[in-house]
Amino acid sequence: MASKHTIATRHAQGIRARFASRFLRSLLRLRRRSNRFGGSQSNDEGIGKRIRTDRIKIAAYASMARAVGPRRTWSRALLFKLRNRARIHGVSRKRCLVSEKKRVTRNKVVVAISREPSRADTLRKLVPGGDSMDTCVLLEETAHYIKCLATQVTVMQSIADRLLL
Amino acid sequence: MDPPLINETSFSAANPSSYTLAEIWPFPPPPPPPTRSGLRMDNLADPDGSLEESTLTDQSSGNGTRIRKTRDFSSEKDDSTKIVSTTTSANDLNDSNGKRRKITGSGSVKDDSRAETEASSAANNKSAEQSSKASEPPKQDYIHVRARRGQATDSHSLAERARREKISERMNMLQDLVPGCNKVIGKALVLDEIINYIQSLQCQVEFLSMKIEAVNSRMNTSTTIEGLHPKDLGAQPFVATGMIFSPQPTREYVQGSQSEWLHMQVGGSFERALFTGETIHRRGGFQVCNTEVLQWIRVSRTDMQGKKQQPYHGAEQLKWRHRNHGSRKISRHGGDWKEMKIRGEKIVLEPKFSAENVFCITKANGMWSFLMSILVKLRGWSGWIHRNPPSPS
Where can this protein be found (chain A) (predicted)? Predict the structure, then answer.
């Protein structure tokens, strides 16, 4: 039992260290970029702030998913989503429209089958990649995701505290 | 498992160009059954259960048709192996997978016909069974499901029972992970707690990124981040110091001056809230997931002119009112209701504040998600979140 615990904590610490280094690196990158384009963004402060916040958040999630690696379904789904986000933004709206139609039809089918969304469906929406999991896998992925999120929060908290000091 | 089992592998096969192979598929291709024992040993060696699930799901997606063919047939379960399977919960999916592969017999299987099932099963599985019988029980790669007296013994109900057992094991695992979830009884409520916890963590990430952004943009020199070493951050204890709630007298919650409480406006005061956040941070905000308390909320009460007023005491109901939508109930748990108003751009929450009532709002299930969604939707504000409860002395 004790050995199990130590191995588990070591594992978590490894993830934490990896996440912290990745996140700090991406923060540095973000800062350099904002320094480079500092003049252009200063005219609209609120929007720029929101964009920067979103970038930091995305960086946090991406570095978490990379720190976990492709072993987990949720991290793979998150990486996939983050990777294709730029493509979806960049290409066009056509694709979005198509997917919207598809989604609509699928929703209709689901509604025809019956049943309002249960709690497991809510959980599916929260855990990345949860749409394609069955309940058992979903619960396991949720457990790991919760662990990683807690780690992420503590690391970000400590980074923020250090930065404020 | 549900029939529409779509995994990452299936959709990496759909567009293989978007992935490098090493990233998406770090494991050797699904091994044939005789070598599965080695995989199993690896899984046993890793107690964190981090590696095996993905491989297993991938395998099951790869051999989906076969599994679906064989999964309907029942299996048996000894009581001893049941205990074993509950103790090695991370291994459980593996076990069930093995079980599905193993059983090729048809129809309902009773305890007497167990030998027949083994005989009809594949040879490698049989050998695995024998070896596991000879040596340690945890090496078994399937679960025996034994129907108790009075339980249905047809294949579907046995499989369903095994599935339910797996789900309940995972629920127990999650209950250990989510703080304050142990005392909750009932699967739905536990799921609610889990959902709330995940949402709170995600909102916390959002808030922290906002904070980091503020600090990041305020400081022009890039020395500080480089000065931070991830080793230091990794070496920090799990509960960061900022999360620790410094105990304050309860009077402060009851009447406390509203100066730096969450006087929230959509447009302007976000900055102020963020930067006074350090003081607020240690005092108030949202209380997440300790034993009883889901959250506690302290928000200044403002009238229409923006004049501050005493916090609301006698609220019997938790409602939220919008100027346009009238009032409606949001949630109820255990008869504790609070009131929440949205007036124009100002969000005013009016919880009962007394020593015991600080905790009342916390019990309102679903309240958390509702509130957070409003706040986040309005302007990305996500509140102050704490680990530790305020001590109502």
Answer: Nucleus
As to burial, measured by CB atoms within 10 angstroms (0-12 exposed, 13-18 middle, 19+ buried), residue B25 is middle
- B351-392 pLDDT tens trace: 333 222 222 233 333 333 334 333 333 333 333 333 333 444
In chain B, where the domains are located: 8-177, 192-386
Burial of B77 (0-12, 13-18, 19+ CB in 10 A): buried
Q: Which residue has the higher pLDDT, B360 or B120?
A: B120
CB < 8 Å to B159, chain A: none
In angstroms, rounded to a whole number, what is the distance separating the alpha carbons of residues A116 and A102? 20
Query: Rounded mean pLDDT of A119-125?
Result: 84
Prediction ipTM score: 0.79
Among candidates B24, B191, B208 on the partner chain, residue whose Cβ is nearest the Cβ of A119:
B191
Q: Is A141 on the interface with B (CB under 8 A)?
A: yes
Residues of B in contact with A84 (CB under 8 A): 18
- pTM of the shown model: 0.46
- Tell me how far apart the alpha carbons of residues B217 and B306 are, in angstroms, rounded to a whole number: 31
H or E element in which residue B101 lies: helix B92-102
Task: Verify whether the Cβ–Cβ distance A156 to B208 is below 8 Å.
Answer: yes
Q: Which residues of A touch B8 (CB under 8 A)?
A: 73, 76-77, 80, 129, 132
Query: Chain A within 8 Å of B206 (Cβ-Cβ)?
Result: yes
Q: How confident is the model at residue A128 (pLDDT cuts 50, 70, 90)?
A: confident
Quick one: pLDDT band at residue B76, thresholds 50, 70, 90?
Answer: very low
